[in-house]
Amino acid sequence: MALEPYKADFLRAALSGNALRFGTFSLKSGRQSPYFFNAGDFYRADLLEALAVAYAKTIHTSNVSFDVIFGPAYKGIPLATAATLALRPLDPERYNKIEYSFDRKEAKDHGEGGTIVGAPLKGRKVLVVDDVVSAGTAKREAIAKIRAQGGEVVGIVVAVDRQETLPDREGSAIGELRKEFGIPIIAILTLEDIIAGARDGFATEDDLKRIQEYKAKYGASD
Ligand SMILES: O=P(O)(O)OC[C@H]1O[C@H](OP(=O)(O)OP(=O)(O)O)[C@H](O)[C@@H]1O
Ligand SMILES: O=C(O)c1cc(=O)[nH]c(=O)[nH]1
Question: What residue stretches are annotated with the Phosphoribosyltransferase domain (predicted)?
C-alpha cells in the first residue's frame, strides 16, 4: 500500500536532510541496523517546518483529545513548540488555544523556579511529544513528572517507531509502554512505513532487501 501523502512528505524531508540514512549503523542495543534516524538533523528552517507539519498531521489524524503538548528536555522542547505552531492552521478553531510546556533537567531555585516551564499541567490532558523511544526510560520519567504535577498523560507521539524487539525480550519498547500505561503511542513513521517508502522508490533495492532482512530478524509484533 502506498504511503499517505504526509508520511511520504516527511520521508522525503528526512532523507533530504540526512536525518534518515540507509547503510550500516551500530545501535545502542549493539545491533547493526541498515537504517538510522536522527531527529537532531532537522536543524534547517525548511526541514524544521517539514518536521513540525508531520508531527501536527500525526497528532491531528490520531484524534487524541488533549490540552497541552509536553516536550521532555532537551530534544522534546523544540518538537513541542514547533508542533503547537503547526497544529493551528490545520484547524484554527480546535487548536487556537492549545498550550505547550516542557521540563528542565535540573530544578531552578530562583526566578519562577521549579522544573516545568510553560503551561501548568494540573488537571490537564497532556500529550507528550519526543523524538524516539529506545528503552522507554525517558518516557517513564516524563510521565512521572507530569503526573506529579497533577496532569493526565493521554498519549505519546514520536517521529519513528522502529518496531523492533528489545534485546532479550519478545516485545518492543513502545509495545511495553502501551501495555504499562494504556495510552496510544503513535509514530509519524513506523518501520512498516519506511519499508513501504523504500518500495515506492525512496531507497535502493539493496537497502530495501537489507531492511526486510533486519525486520525478519528483529521485528516486533506489538
Ligand atoms: O529513554 P527513552 O524513552 O527510550 O527515550 C530515549 C530518549 O533519550 C534521549 O533523550 P535524553 O533523555 O537522553 O535527553 P536529550 O533529549 O537531552 O538528548 C532521546 O532523545 C530519546 O528521547
Ligand atoms: O537504537 C538506537 O540507538 C537508535 C536508532 C535510531 O534509528 N536512531 C537513534 O537515534 N537511535
Answer: 48-170
Topology classification of domain 5-218:
Rossmann fold (3.40.50)
Is 110 one of the catalytic residues? yes
ipTM at complex level: 0.93
Which residues sit opposite 61 in a β-bridge?
none
Are 205 and 25 a contacting pair, CB within 8 Å? no
Residue 60: active-site member: no
Q: Indicate whether residue 110 lines ligand 2 (CB < 6 A).
A: no
Per-residue pLDDT tens digits of the chain, which is 222 residues long: 689 999 999 999 999 999 999 999 999 889 999 999 999 999 999 999 999 999 999 999 999 999 999 999 999 999 999 999 999 999 999 999 999 999 999 877 777 778 899 999 999 999 999 999 988 999 999 999 999 999 999 999 999 999 999 998 889 999 999 999 999 999 999 999 999 999 999 999 999 999 999 999 999 988
In whole angstroms, what is the distance from residue 134 CA to residue 69 CA? 21
- What residue owns the CA closest to ligand 2's atom 10? 38
Is 110 in a helix, a strand, or coil?
A: coil
| Most ligand 1 atoms within 8 A of CB, residue of 134, 158, 178, 185 to mutate | 134
Q: Report the distance separating Cα 59 and Cα 157, nearest Å.
A: 7
User: Nearest-CA neighbor of 163 among 185, 137, 130, 139?
Assistant: 185
Type of residue at 185: I
Task: Retrieve residue 80's grid coordinates.
Answer: 513541542
